[in-house]
Amino acid sequence: xxxxxxxxxxxxxxxxxxxxxxxxxxxxxxxxxxxxxxxxxxxxxxxxxxxxxxxxxxxxxxxxxxxxxxxxxxxxxxxxxxxxxxxxxxxxxxxxxxxxxxxxxxxxxxxxxxxxxxxxxxxxx
Length: 125
Fold this sequence. Notes:
The chain is mainly alpha-helical. It has one domain (3-114). Helices cover 59% and strands 11% of the residues. The chain has 5 helices and 2 strands, in the order H-H-H-H-H-E-E. The chain has helices at 3-12, 17-20, 23-46, 48-65, 76-93, and strands at residues 98-104, 108-114. A two-stranded antiparallel ribbon has the order 1-2. Helix 3 (23-46) packs antiparallel against helix 4 (48-65), helix 3 (23-46) packs parallel to helix 5 (76-93) and helix 4 (48-65) runs antiparallel to helix 5 (76-93). The longest helix has 24 residues, at 23-46. It is elongated, with a radius of gyration of 17 Å. The N and C termini lie far apart (68 Å). The model has no long low-confidence stretch (mean pLDDT 78).
């Protein structure tokens, strides 16, 4: 089973990830992530909603895989740079006020878009 097929199965049922990931798949994850990030970058300006959903899926997958392949941490700075570029384009398209990416311990990566929700309602009185 190709890594992309494992990713698609994981989206439907995250419980199966441990069973599906072999050493072969773990070695192919960097190439898979590069491919997904290229796809997300292509979608970021024309289909920002879809690109954001794809980015969230990739982050979830990374968070699940990172426990099985801690070596992916070696590429974390590179991946976060790619996330930042895509997220900046998505935020601009969605008119978000800000975005953030964080990495922490226990090992995980998270991202968010933020919009100012302060409503200034003027009364007639």
